[in-house]
């Protein structure tokens, strides 16, 4: 990560707001005081279905796509700059992938850390890894093909993935299915990555697996097309909003209809899930654009913009910091030792709230803590480029 102190460039404020809202939600759901006490909307769907928490990751990938259209729009018009731009995108993608691997390997206890053992059981897929892959592939497609072809690629990906998952027999199982451990994606992950390098909570499948990254790219490209349209100077803002709302509603409805045959499922990143979440993201961005950028009602946006301009940084640090702090051990009254952050939660939250509200209050305090840090960075015009 390279810290840069610069004058703030012109940015689409509604996009920063949406990005900040999304990453703050991501931190909220990833850092409860207790994983055993979570309100239902702040937990993922057990398998099929979609909770508010299941919207967070696809919204972020959608925003990555919109950002590509804004950041690389001028470069697309200059073919001589494509190779240089793709190289920069590759470097950024590798950085994101590497940060994801670092989070996966970083020990929760240095005293028992074994590098060889950790590498042999390192989880390779992950959230940052998927963001890096989607960013890189979406960047190439954006630079090298027309908007119409991007649309065609999205449709091709969604139909191909649906056909693979619902018609191709799974080796060792004998029939196509969409169950956790026996679907085609899970088989491919175990075959290529082996169980040692998959999600530790399952070991037999991974929610950010290889095959499901294909439709995740479609989510990024969905955002690219929305960004391209939003950037157009030859269309009145009211017309843009009307079209974006229409597209968002139609895509969400299409996702709900497809759900009847190909269930909405985040872990499988089904084609219906791409349409449903992409449609909702389009509606939210269109509404934000109308309120914030067109009508200039933006006083309420500052806390989220503060999160939005350093989104990847705060996501990475919020994943790393608890592990570091919990390496400091605090002795309890019963003689047991717990991590410092766990002790903080048990001392300042558990005695004063019900279990589920203590867990939520801790997560909110976690967001507030990082907000203070990000506010100082924002006021000093510090944006950490990843």
From TrEMBL:
Domain Heparan-alpha-glucosaminide N-acetyltransferase catalytic: 11-167
Chain segments annotated as transmembrane: 55-72, 93-110, 122-143, 150-170, 209-230, 242-261, 273-292, 304-321, 359-378
The organism's place on the tree of life at top rank: Bacteria
The keyword Protease is assigned to this record: no
Claim: Membrane is one of the keywords in the record: yes
Keywords of this entry: Membrane, Transmembrane, Transmembrane helix
Protein known as: DUF5009 domain-containing protein
Organism of origin: Pedobacter cryotolerans
């Amino acid at each position: 990560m390279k810290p840069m102190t610069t004058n703030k460039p012109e940015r689409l404020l509604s996009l920063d707001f949406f990005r900040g809202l999304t990453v703050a939600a991501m931190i909220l759901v990833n850092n409860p005081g207790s994983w055993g006490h979570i309100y239902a909307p702040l937990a993922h769907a057990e398998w099929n279905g979609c909770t508010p928490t299941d919207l967070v990751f696809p919204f972020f990938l959608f925003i990555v796509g919109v950002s590509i259209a804004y950041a690389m729009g001028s470069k697309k018009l200059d073919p001589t700059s494509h190779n240089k731009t793709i190289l920069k995108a590759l470097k950024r993608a590798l950085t994101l992938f590497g940060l994801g691997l670092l989070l996966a390997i970083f020990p929760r206890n240095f005293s028992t850390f074994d590098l060889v053992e950790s590498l042999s059981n390192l989880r390779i897929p992950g959230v940052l890894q998927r963001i890096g892959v989607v960013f890189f592939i979406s960047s190439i497609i954006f630079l090298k093909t027309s908007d119409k072809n991007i649309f065609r690629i999205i449709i091709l990906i969604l139909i191909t993935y649906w056909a693979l998952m619902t018609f191709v027999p799974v080796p060792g199982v004998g029939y196509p299915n969409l169950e956790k451990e026996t679907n085609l994606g899970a088989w491919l992950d175990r075959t290529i990555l082996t169980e040692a390098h998959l999600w530790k909570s399952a070991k037999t499948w991974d929610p950010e697996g290889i095959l499901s990254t294909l439709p995740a790219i479609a989510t990024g490209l969905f955002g690219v097309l929305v960004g391209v349209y939003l950037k157009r100077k030859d269309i009145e803002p009211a017309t843009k909003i009307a079209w974006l709302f229409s597209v968002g509603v139609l895509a969400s409805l299409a996702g709900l209809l497809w759900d009847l045959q190909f269930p909405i499922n985040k872990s499988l990143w089904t084609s219906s899930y791409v349409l449903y979440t992409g449609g909702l993201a389009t509606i939210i961005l269109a509404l934000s654009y109308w309120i914030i950028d067109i009508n200039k009602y933006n006083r309420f946006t500052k806390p989220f913009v503060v999160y939005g301009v350093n989104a990847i940084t705060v996501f990475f640090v919020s994943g790393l910091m608890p592990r570091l702090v919990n390496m400091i051990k605090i002795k309890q009254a019963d003689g047991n030792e717990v991590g410092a952050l766990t002790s903080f939660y048990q001392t300042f939250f558990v005695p004063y709230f019900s279990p589920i509200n203590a867990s939520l209050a801790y997560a909110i305090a976690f967001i507030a803590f990082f907000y203070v840090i990000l506010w100082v960075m924002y006021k000093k015009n510090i944006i950490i480029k990843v």
